[in-house]
Amino acid sequence: MELLIYIYLFIFGACFGSFYNVVGLRISDGKSISKPRSSCPKCGHVLCWWELIPILSYFLLVGKCRECKSHISTKYLLFEIVTSLLFMYCYFMFGFSGEFIISLMFVSLIIIISVSDLEYMIIEDKVLIFFFGLLVLLRVFIKLPTEFLTFNINHYLESLIGGLFGFILLYLIAFIGQIVYKQEVMGGGDIKLYGIIGIVLGLKMTLLSLFFASTVGTVISLLLSSLKMINKEKPIPFGPFIGIGCLLTYFYGIEILKWYFNLF
Ligand SMILES: [Zn+2]
Prior knowledge:
The protein is mainly α and 264 residues long. It has helices at 2-28, 56-60, 74-94, 98-120, 125-141, 155-181, 188-201, 203-226, 239-262.
């Protein structure tokens, strides 16, 4: 039975991952997400039903367009697989509970913003507004896990403080960065995104996620710039690092904090 649930979640995740690729790419490009049907960006060949099967179609087509033989980006495949694995992981962590629904939505938000941020360096307002509404509503009914609370105050207040804290802190970082470096160090999308993250995670975990996001971001940026893969003209999108930092905190933050404080 459990195995069956995981298989379902894998398929379900792959389909949603495929849809999130479309949402992330089309919304940021100002296109409709339902029409026209998906086609090859090189030759315009409209994909038939089996070419639209997530994950599987990539292997059936051996990673190439059936018409013009141009390479299909492995990014699509990667996001489909990552969404599948994360959907299964959400069930593994939370089982069938309220938090399971929040975790699926949180993962969805992170996948969509990562797709668009990697492709266009944009985190679209429409996506943020949708998930803001959805996650605020869900947090009204599904309380923040007790161990996420910073002070033993009300769950709602913790979410509210977390959201305000995330938004204001990133706004300040962006504001100071602008003065010091005389250029945009943080996009408006990142700032608004952190408001939503704060609502989902609460104050303490938001701060921890920011620490992880900037650590992972710094390490990977240094690595990529030493390989000359990024430079001042070609900056690196921060959204995917925020995503990694947040999921790490969401799934393992409490364990990491316990481990860290036990060291001292
Ligand atoms: Zn083609």
